[in-house]
Write a structure and sequence with these properties.
The chain is mostly helical. It is built from nine helices and two strands, in the order H-H-E-E-H-H-H-H-H-H-H.
Length: about 170
């Protein structure tokens, strides 16, 4: 419980850089919510007698890679879920909405479930986009940091137009 001994400025600084780094994905998540971020790999007749496997959007994989190295990752997120009796994504969204600076572990544990859990149950990555979990966590984290500190400047946002240009060239 080292976090309880930090000053407000130290606590915010601990999250600030990671919030800036992950906030660049917000426009992409806003565009992608409700759209498919995975496809099943098919290579004609070669895949006829084998199991199909999902291929995920490269931007989603980049986000997951970035998120996995932030202060938002909490390996003991299972305890948070059982302690708060979280059963579905609606419970998660409700907790995200009510989170504040004193409850950043809510954002940490929910994001951790989808990032870490998706490494063994990949459908969680798709669910995180479909149910707007990733988007909600990022927006709430940004809102909290901006409320208690100062507005964040995100210079290298991943804009939806850039994604469309990449898809057209492939």
């Amino acid at each position: 419980m080292q976090k309880e001994k930090l000053s407000r400025e130290e606590f915010l600084q601990m999250f600030r850089e990671d919030v800036i780094r992950l906030s660049r994905y917000i426009p992409w998540f806003e565009k992608k919510s409700g759209n498919d971020v995975s496809k099943n790999y098919q290579d004609g007749d070669k895949m006829k007698h084998t199991l199909s496997f999902p291929v995920y959007d490269s931007i989603l994989l980049a986000f997951l890679n970035d998120a996995s190295t932030t202060v938002f990752m909490e390996q003991n997120y299972h305890y948070f879920y059982s302690r708060n009796q979280i059963k579905n994504y609606e419970d998660e969204l409700r907790l995200i909405e009510t989170a504040d600076i004193m409850h950043m572990e809510v954002l940490q544990c929910i994001l951790s479930r989808y990032v870490f859990g998706g490494m063994t149950k990949a459908y969680l990555w798709k669910d995180g986009v479909d149910h707007r979990i990733f988007l909600s966590v990022l927006k709430k984290a940004r809102q909290i940091v901006e409320f208690w500190d100062q507005p964040l400047v995100i210079e290298d946002e991943i804009l939806p137009e850039e994604v469309e240009d990449e898809e057209e060239t492939e």
